[in-house]
Amino acid sequence: xxxxxxxxxxxxxxxxxxxxxxxxxxxxxxxxxxxxxxxxxxxxxxxxxxxxxxxxxxxxxxxxxxxxxxxxxxxxxxxxxxxxxxxxxxxxxxxxxxxxxxxxxxxxxxxxxxxxxxxxxxxxxxxxxxxxxxxxxxxxxxx
Length: 143
Prior knowledge:
The chain is α+β, with helices and mostly antiparallel strands and 143 residues long. 22% of the residues lie in helices and 43% in strands. It has one domain. It has a 5-stranded antiparallel β-sheet with strand order 6-5-4-1-12, with no helix packed on it.
């Protein structure tokens, strides 16, 4: 019975992986460009200040593709979110704790809002401190 559960789980994961693939033409939908003026973290990846292009990836927008202009693309898991300001354009939300900043929310449009899961490092900082600062950066459409 354990073996059957294992194969069902593997089969389900394969279906999810295939379902999250996109055709290349659809990958540019919802893309935004932004200049981030400080170093920051997304998941376990560290990023330097600079110009970035972001877009949801996968058929359900389940991943964030984050590419430094002229650099590599990194991916992070996205969770469905709520846009508290439906009349506002695209923007990013960062939480800053001292000199460390973490991307926590991406709003591509009022109906396309995502949260990023807290990292172990961010949880560690939160446990040591009472609060951090929230920084919001408006973004423009990708060219």
